[in-house]
Amino acid sequence: MNTALEFDHVEMLIGTVSNAAEANAKATRSTILTPRFYTTDFAALDRLDVSPVRQEWDQMMQEYEGDNNHDHFQRDAQFVDEVREGMSKLSPELRQEFLDFLISSLTSEFSGCILYNEVRKNIRNTDIRQLMTYMARDESRHAGFINLALRDFDLGIDLGNLKRNKAYTFFKPKYIYYATYLSEKIGYARYITIFRQLERHPELRFHPIFRWFERWCNDEFRHGESFALLMRAHPHLLQGANKLWIRFFILAVYATMYVRDHTRPLMHKAMGLQSTDYDYAVFRITSDIARQVFPIEVDIDHPVFRRCMTRLAELSVESAAAKARGGLIGGLKRAYCATLATLTFGRLYLLPVKQQELPPQIRVQPTW
Question: What is the pLDDT of residues 53-94, one digit of tens each?
Fold first, then answer.
């Protein structure tokens, strides 16, 4: 994607946030690129049986119970000073990109908290209830920690209002497994890639929240492992026509991330990253991890894959420009962009995928 084009349209794509009301409106808004809130078939989740993976499951529950991050999400004495020093050096455009990142991340974390809590309250299955309790605990901490960072800018999100007013999407349980597994693993890959970059270049760490990312993303990794165990315990979820759904969700998660990240080129540049290179590093880590559970893998190095990702980002810019223009012409242009985006995604979907045998060892370790 053309860098100049990215910079020119950042404000158009992400909008601006200057007060708490705008921050809350942004978090509540639902678009194809914003994190969603989900509900599902609780009765189906209640029937889940983890007996085929009981040994691994019990080991994981012990890890959750040990709660090695119980004292991690505390702001130290340096935090506020670092915020003031770092953010005072940022351009208004970069500040907006970073705030967009915080609001989007909070919404995503809180989405998981709500889903896991709702599952816990609506089922009796002791194994799944225990898992959901632990994961809701972790996501609540993450969302709360981000919200404290937003409050430093007087932009705190009213989480109760967000829960009441954001639209919910119903997903079948298997879609929840695929989408949540990928979201948790790609969340790990995103955070660890940023953490490693700033570990090498601490002078580029413009906000202290990045110092928490390593142990934070290990929570995300463990959450993904939980869904990997659920899927490996029910092999039919990974066979037959379900492979088509797996392909769809991999591509949907990758495409959404790619388009969204190309609205934040200044933030990536400030950390010494380039949006496209960063995204492909994240794709590669996520693909490596997902071999533990998915029998197929998309070919992220295929030239058509890369062209289609670039085209989706370009169409997002064109659609945003059409929306800003408004009127009949703007509406027609948006419809045209939506049609082209659908066709582009279809082209991605039809690309050959890599077939692979699942490894006997279900669990993997966060070694990236």
Answer: 999 999 999 999 999 888 889 888 788 888 888 877 889 999
Q: Is 349 inside any structural domain?
A: no
DSSP 358: P
User: Which domain does 61 fall in, by range?
Assistant: 20-295
What is the radius of gyration, based on Cα positions, of the chain?
Answer: 20
- pTM for the model stands at 0.92
Structure tokens at 255: 């495409």
- The amino acid that residue 368 corresponds to is W
Q: Name every residue whose Cβ is closer than 8 Å to that of residue 216 and which is 6 or more positions away in sequence.
A: 69, 72, 73, 142, 191
156 within 8 A of 147, measured Cβ to Cβ: yes
Give the domain CATH number at 93: 1.10.620.20
pLDDT beneath 50: ranges in the chain: 1-7
Cβ neighbours for 194, distance < 8 A, ≥ 6 positions apart: 210, 213, 271, 273
Give the pLDDT confidence score for residue 84 in this predicted structure: 80
**Distance between CA atoms of 111 and 169, rounded to whole angstroms?**
11
30, two tokens: 């639902």
The answer to whether 249 and 179 are in contact (CB under 8 A) is yes
Cα–Cα distance between 230 and 249 in angstroms, integer?
Answer: 17
- Closest C-alpha to 273, from 208, 205, 220: 205
